[in-house]
Amino acid sequence: MLGGFLALLSAITFGFNNASVRRGVLSGSVLQALAITVPVGVPFFLVMILVTGNIGAVTGLTTEAFLWLAAAGVLHFVIGRYCNYRSTKAIGGNLSGPWKQSNLILALVLAIVFLGEVLTPLKVAGIVLILMGAYFTSKATFKKPKPAKEGEPKPKHPEFEPSYREGYSFALLSAVAYGSSPILVRMGLESQGPGTSFWGGLISYSSAALVIGLILLLPGRWKHVREVGQSSVRWFSLAAILVGFSQMFRYMALAIAPVSVVTPIQSTSVVFRVIFGWLINRDTEVFGAWVVLGVLVTMLGVLGLSVSTEIVTANLQLPDGIMRLVEFSWP
To answer: If you ran DSSP here, which 8-state letter would residue 301 be given?
Structure first.
């Protein structure tokens, strides 16, 4: 129960984070977003370790665990986040969101191979529904706002022109990175408890911040980051704080609950992304029937992946044939 609740908190803050990033990249670049959001995670988790009194929890981590967590940080916070921000800048959070949910499929496959988890008919149905949700969402198109009439205030944001091929491609790439990283985190934190998860976040963010620092040493990169506008700085800073809380809840959840439970619940962020997108970015996001249908079908898929077979069999009176099908598992 606690693991699921923490995963839900992670989903809510991650949805808000996506809306904040979307606002920031309207005028800022992906590299500027990474340069602000990734390093902020280091002091964030360091403060959380001090506040929660978990300084000594690091002794429970082996050298192998350190390596798994460092690899997870580079994969998730550098590669995955870059692709996520790139797709968000190209087509917005609403269109890219359901496609990013395909990370669940990869996470499930890797959990079966490396962590001994099993595939069930409910999870197969969840996979199919998630793929259908992504398909439905891809049928939505962006309608440009009507130009302001003479005397009316000009739009607050730069004109948005979606780049669908770029957006969907990087959404799928981010799904690969985001779907793989929970396995590495779980391998580093398994059986360690919530306290150690703060150290897991610090190690992962530190390794990612080091990589970003090396990138900024390349010619012209640091100068480009320093040219970021004040509006983007504010939105990227808010996103950094929100994603810090989101990752804190995520690491705590992964320390006490299986990947097959945490990842699907956290993926409800696709719903919160739409809600916060409507509140913050309604002029630069795609809304409409196809988006709503895609989100709803994706959520049914998430439900299929997150509900355990035991819950279904204990609470539903099903015919024997269907019950045997529901109880089937592989491998």
So the answer is: H
Amino acid code (one letter) for 107:
A
- SS3 percent helix, strand, coil of the chain, rounded to 5, is 75, 0, 20
331: cis peptide before it, omega within 30°?
A: yes
Rg (alpha carbons) of the chain, rounded to whole number: 20
Phi then psi dihedrals of residue 119, to 5 deg: -100, 135
How many angstroms separate the first and last alpha carbons of the chain? 26
CB 63 within 8 A of CB 4: no
Q: What are phi and psi of 159, to 5 degrees?
A: -60, 135
Distance in angstroms (rounded) separating the CA atoms of residues 328 and 28: 50
Q: What are residue 330's DSSP bridge partners?
A: 119
Q: How many CB atoms lie within 10 A of CB 219?
A: 6
Identity (one letter) of the amino acid at 142? F
Closest CA to 157 of 281, 244, 287: 281
Our measurement of the distance from residue 43's CA atom to the centroid of its chain's CA atoms, rounded to an integer in Å, reads 21
Q: Which residues contact 110 (CB under 8 A, 6 or more apart)?
A: 179, 180, 183
21-44 pLDDT, tens digit each? 988 988 899 999 999 999 998 998
- Look-up: residue for tokens 């396995």? 183
**Does the predicted TM-score (pTM) go above 0.90?**
no
Question: What would you measure as the largest C-alpha separation in the chain, in angstroms?
Answer: 70
| For range 44-63, the mean pLDDT | 88
Q: For the chain, give every domain's residue range.
A: 2-149+157-327
Other beta carbons less than 10 A from residue 115's beta carbon: 15
Residue 76 to residue 183: CA distance in whole angstroms: 11
Q: Closest by alpha carbon to 325, among 108, 122, 105?
A: 122
Strands (E), the chain: none
- The dihedrals phi and psi of 117, each to the nearest 5 degrees, come to -80, 165
Amino acid at 226: R
pLDDT tens sequence across 272-321: 888 888 888 877 777 888 888 888 888 788 777 767 777 778 777 778 88
| Structure tokens that stand for 321 in this block | 């044939």
Residue indicated by tokens 């460092």: 70
